[in-house]
């Protein structure tokens, strides 16, 4: 059984002067069915650790986070949490039930502080009303009031309101949003509120499972800065490579049912992992040759009495060999193909002056657009600008004003942002599909599950033990159960890894019908859509061409950058009566050239760092060799040490020059 022990850690071997141990994990084991998810897992989390938890889909990343925060128990093992250490946990999927305003919901993070304020106010009232100034009880009340008031001020006191506003603003909320009911916001925005509550509690250890799924670029950058300066320890799971590189300084990989701990950020881990796997493959090949040689000897002399002793020795030797494990490479990929569909009318979706309001808040107005049969279009815009809202209008899920016509013979297949939350967690994968499949499709369930990497025994896993990516794949299968001719996919790639994204993209490209894709992923949309609808400022603007045509029109590199320009232009239009020329705007080609200069300079710095690391490692090896008495007078080693040290000093000087040059280029850009 797992034990969560809250105690002071006294072992000096597990802590240093600057970093102290917060969580210790010992011999953790988790079993789902016959094969363990992972076994004999041990590691520690120290203050200032920024850990990226990585591994293939289904390796157990989310499960490990749940165990660390106490939401799930493993088969065996011990999780020890240091005395007074607090933990904040943001899961991939969260069931949110609240009925208040944005700011009031965020204020719940300070429930203890608010309760303390009420207690202090009550004591202050008693001090004002009582007249027994000389009594012992009055003196005790004064002492208690002073202590609690000092403690309240030490905790930040009434500053929490300003901190709430800063955090909400950092996560993308406008001031006008603070007093809006939370029920008016999409699932992604409500997840931001939950993230704000967790960050405002300032836990000692933050456990974040795909925190960037519902954030735009500005909010991601703000979160990066917060985690770098305002968090003590972080363990996060993310498919956003740039984000984990900017945040983490340590990488823990779950592989082959155990973990490998690398004290480096993600990009460096990839290089070390490659080297490690090459070493494993060499060791594996050598071991296989050794095993083959032993078996050959046994078979050759098995029946010769004169070799009986040697044969028995070889058999015992074979039994003692511990197999070399090679880290898994996830070469699996789902095979997705949408079934043939009936032909729809020429115009599946026609909007004419459509408007949607939530109370006094107008989400969008005067929306007029026409989507033709066979078109693949993208809805882009910052969170809260109405993309998912218009989708719900098309689906007929919410009321609106204006005219919205769904064409003749249109059959809609809808993948919502919260699709994974709609699955019954107590069903198995197979039962989940079996309950909705009809007709001949029921005979093909196993084939369908196999195409989505749920074949064999995996189909008997319960939904509740699936990762976010696995749940998304399972929800995607539901789209294949009935032929549809209008696909509406709302952020379909949120929980999918890169290979799965590519498979989904190719399947949509080959789809016979019409598709509306809500996404911020430009690589996913590239080559897929022929029209972009931009949501912002209460309006929807049509852009003909692909996603990169849209970006070129904005002189932008990313969708978020383009949307930022749009928002900036809208603000400028409101405060200026006459249009001002954009004298400082650079061309798209110039921007590309600037980025090439930065990349070239960065590459030179990176190569220099690799050379330095290699030489430092070689110097360590030479130090160890020269420390041995037999090598003390080996002039070849001494000469190599001297030359390597000289080259290293020169390379360090070169690194300094290259780094300064890189910084100068960044400043000029």
Number of discrete helical segments: 20
Strand content: 15-25%
Number of separate strands: 19
- Read across the widest sheet, the strand sequence of neighbours is 6-7-8-4-9-10
Which structural class is indicated by helix and strand composition? alpha/beta
Low-confidence stretches: 1-18, 571-586
Summed over residues and divided by their number, the pLDDT gives a mean of 80
What portion of residues is helical? 40-55%
Shape: globular
How large, in whole angstroms, is the Cα Rg?
30 Å
Q: What is the rounded distance between the termini? A: 57 Å
Largest sheet: 6 strands, mixed
Oligomer: single chain
Write a concise synopsis of the structure shown.
The chain is α/β, with parallel strands linked by helices.
How would you explain this protein's 3D organization?
The longest helix has 39 residues, at 588-626. Helix 9 packs antiparallel against helix 10 (308-320). The chain has helices at 61-68, 102-107, 111-129, 136-154, 160-170, 187-200, 217-230, 241-247, 266-301, 308-320, 387-395, 429-434, 445-451, 468-479, 498-510, 522-525, 547-553, 559-575, 588-626, 635-668, and strands at residues 4-7, 21-31, 36-46, 50-54, 76-82, 87-90, 205-209, 233-237, 250-255, 258-262, 349-358, 361-371, 376-381, 401-406, 412-415, 486-490, 514-518, 531-536, 539-544. The chain has 20 helices and 19 strands. It is α/β, with parallel strands linked by helices and 669 residues long. The strands form four sheets. The protein has a six-stranded mixed β-sheet, with helices on both faces. The chain is globular. The model is unreliable at 1-18 and 571-586 (pLDDT under 50).
């Amino acid at each position: 059984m797992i034990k969560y022990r809250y105690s002071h850690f006294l072992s000096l071997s597990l802590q240093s002067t600057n970093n102290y141990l917060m969580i210790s994990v010992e011999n953790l084991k988790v079993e789902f069915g016959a094969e363990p998810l992972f076994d004999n897992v041990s590691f520690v989390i120290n203050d200032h650790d920024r850990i990226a938890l990585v591994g293939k889909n289904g390796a157990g990343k989310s499960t490990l986070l749940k165990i660390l925060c106490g939401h799930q128990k493993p088969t065996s093992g011990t999780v020890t949490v240091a005395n007074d250490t607090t933990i904040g946990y943001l899961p991939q999927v969260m069931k949110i039930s609240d009925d208040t305003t944005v700011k009031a919901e965020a204020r719940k993070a300070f429930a203890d502080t608010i309760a303390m304020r009420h207690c202090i106010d009550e004591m202050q009232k008693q001090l004002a009303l009582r007249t027994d100034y000389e009594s012992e009880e009055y003196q005790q009340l004064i002492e208690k009031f002073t202590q609690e008031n000092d403690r309240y001020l030490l905790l930040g006191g009434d500053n929490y309101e300003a901190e709430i506003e800063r955090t909400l603003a950092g996560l993308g909320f406008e001031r006008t949003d603070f007093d809006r009911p939370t029920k008016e916001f999409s699932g992604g925005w409500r997840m931001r509120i939950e993230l704000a509550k967790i960050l405002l509690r300032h836990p000692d250890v933050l456990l974040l499972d795909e925190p960037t799924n519902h954030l735009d670029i500005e909010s991601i950058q703000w979160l990066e800065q917060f985690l770098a300066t305002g968090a003590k320890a972080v363990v996060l799971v993310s498919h956003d490579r740039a984000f984990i590189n900017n945040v983490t300084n340590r990488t823990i990989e779950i592989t082959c049912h155990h973990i490998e701990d690398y004290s480096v950020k993600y990009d460096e881990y990839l290089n070390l992992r490659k080297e490690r796997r090459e070493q494993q493959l060499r060791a594996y090949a050598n071991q296989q040759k050794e095993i083959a040689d032993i078996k050959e000897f046994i078979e050759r002399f098995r029946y010769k009495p004169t070799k009986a002793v040697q044969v028995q020795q070889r058999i015992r030797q074979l039994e003692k060999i511990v197999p070399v494990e090679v880290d898994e490479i996830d070469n699996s990929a789902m095979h997705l193909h949408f079934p043939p569909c009936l032909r729809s009318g020429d115009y599946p979706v026609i909007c004419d002056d459509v408007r949607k309001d939530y109370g006094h808040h107008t989400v969008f107005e005067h929306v007029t657009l026409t989507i033709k049969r066979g078109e693949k279009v993208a809805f882009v815009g910052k969170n809260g600008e109405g993309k998912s809202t218009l989708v719900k209008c098309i689906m007929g899920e919410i009321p609106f004003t204006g005219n919205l016509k769904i064409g003749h013979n249109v059959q809609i297949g809808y993948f919502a942002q919260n699709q994974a939350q709609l699955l019954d967690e107590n069903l198995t994968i197979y039962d989940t599909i079996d309950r909705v499949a009809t007709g001949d499709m029921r005979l093909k369930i196993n084939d369908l599950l196999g195409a989505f990497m749920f074949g064999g025994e995996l189909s008997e896993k319960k939904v509740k033990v699936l990762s976010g990516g696995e749940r998304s794949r399972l929800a995607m299968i539901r789209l294949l159960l009935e032929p549809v001719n209008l696909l509406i996919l709302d952020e379909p790639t949120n929980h999918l890894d890169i290979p799965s994204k590519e498979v989904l993209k190719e399947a949509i490209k080959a789809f016979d019908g019409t598709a509306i894709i809500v996404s911020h992923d430009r690589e996913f949309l590239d080559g897929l859509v022929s029209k972009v609808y931009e949501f912002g400022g209460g309006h929807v603007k049509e852009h003909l061409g692909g996603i990169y045509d849209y970006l070129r029109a904005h002189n932008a590199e990313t969708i978020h950058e383009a949307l930022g320009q749009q928002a900036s232009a809208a603000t400028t239009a409101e405060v200026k009566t006459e249009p001002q020329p954009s004298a400082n705007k650079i061309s798209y080609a110039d921007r590309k050239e600037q980025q090439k200069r930065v990349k070239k300079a960065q590459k030179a710095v990176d190569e220099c760092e690799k050379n330095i690391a290699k030489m430092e490692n070689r110097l360590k090896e030479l130090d160890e060799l020269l420390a041995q008495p037999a090598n003390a007078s080996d002039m070849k080693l001494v000469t190599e040490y001297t030359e390597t040290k000289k080259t290293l000093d020169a390379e360090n000087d070169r690194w300094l020059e290259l780094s300064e040059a890189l910084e100068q280029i960044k400043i000029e850009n």
